[in-house]
Amino acid sequence: MGIAVGNPGIQTTVQDEGRFGYQQFGVSPAGPMDTQSFYLANILVGNKKSEGVLEMTFSGPELTFEEDNIIAVTGADMSPTVNGEPIPVYQAVLIHAGDVLAFGFASGGCRSYLAFAGGLDVPLVMGSKSTLMRNNLGGVNGRKLEKGDRIGFCAPRATLPNMELRKLRPEVFPKKELTLRVLAGPQDTEFTEEELKHFFWYGAVITNEFDRMGCRLQREVPVKHKGDGNIITDGIAFGSIQVPTNGQPIIMLADRQSTGGYTKIGTVISVDLPKLAQSVPGCRVRFVRVGIEVAQNLYIRRLEKLEGLEKTLGNKSA
Amino acid sequence: MEAKFLIAGDSAVSIQLGEEISLEVNRLVRDLYTNLTEDPVEGITEMVPTYASLMVHYRPQVIGFKRLEEEIRKRMRGREEAGSAAQLVKEIPICYGGELGPDLEDCAAYENVSVEEFIRMHSEHEYYSCMLGFAPGHAYMARFEEPFHFKRRETPRVHIPGRSIVAQLNLSNLIPFGQPCGWNIVGGTPLDICDYQKEDPFVVHAGEWVRYIPVTLREYETIRRDVERGTYKVKSYLRREDKAARDQRVVK
Fold first, then answer.
1. Residues in chain B with pLDDT values less than 70
2. pTM score > 0.90 for this model?
3. Staple partner for B182: which of A140, B83, B132, B156, CB 3.0–4.6 Å?
């Protein structure tokens, strides 16, 4: 087997890169909220960077290992310990059969990613291991982990090439203020030039209504539409900023619905979404407008960096 | 109208093909979807057709926005009449009224017709599945004859069971799983609208047609047993229609 779950943590789910190809049937893609931390966790343990991991929100679980395996923890720091002794984050660590890996509460971010060498043995549903809790789909019985769950390893490892290189400097996430770069559209023309300017000029605050589906923002002055804020339903992207009739924006995240009928003023660029995924209610958000070439170049540069790291570590998937 | 390529972030583009909910515009969406399925552009990861637009998700490391737009426009010029083929109509059994359709009598009363006449109006015509969304397998379906006049209920229900069939105006949707809903429930189907265990989990796809087939509660239970055993096969037939006639029809 692999791991046995004791205390499950507040919300621990299995997530791989996401369930793609089924949005046309109304299935949300799910997948990690913070893609960057997710990729790094997998790369550190020698996996394909799309492999299934545990995403832990606010607090982490207590896991008893039934077999040796190498793990890595990235994202928010939940002070992981093995048999009570602290272990480093952003580093490949060998855990032995019988050891108890435990997590506390998150600091400096709110989501951590725990990758296991060889991945988790969870059935593929529509080609993916990702959990979509809203529809009881994927992961472990379509839900967050519960006490008593057991999850197997696919191909556990006791060693990996270049073990000494498998450590990174932990990421630091913004706490009180966050700048998100945004591409205008698809429905930016549903707002006056003046209103669009205001959107980028005035910030917003993250509210408590912030989950895997989306992040509701509060603006002192609501965004005004030219019309009533409704459109003929169209597709939604990861990071779409919906502005419903009440003028308070919602940023659509991993468990977003595949389609929707509210105007979308813009889309947060991919490389900035991890920062949002790690932020907490009360954080101030500022939007900065960028162009498509800049956004796509940043996306490609991030990917090249990850591929570079895979090569350096001698990962097979590189 | 000229197709609009609306930027939806660094990895998606929403291609808007019309400004109304109509069969004609939705056919343009289906045609483009079919063209891009048969003659794919490298880098596209998935497509999401809706009423009047096609969302294209893509990998910017394979193809940038400008070249993607060029490639898709090329394919749009190439073949504008892809969707004239015969259409598949799936037969969905429905048991009207009773516990499965608690609003049936109210609906007949709203229309000022007998329950029998209401069932005829609802089941005699074919419905077009414009798109899937909201929940896995949830089809947005419209018919083009004898629209009802009633809309949603005044107070939405917090929860309605999966496999309910709901109606308003010329629309009648299949509800895959339990969900909140403001529409009137006219009946229930013994078929699984979405079954994750199947190779194709979804009973109806976008662009297909549906005909509701009235069944008794006994027939409903028999079919349900077959569905649970995995022995039930959804029946279907082909529908033909000339282009001039279908272009006249506006969904809403």
1. 78-86, 241-252
2. yes
3. B156
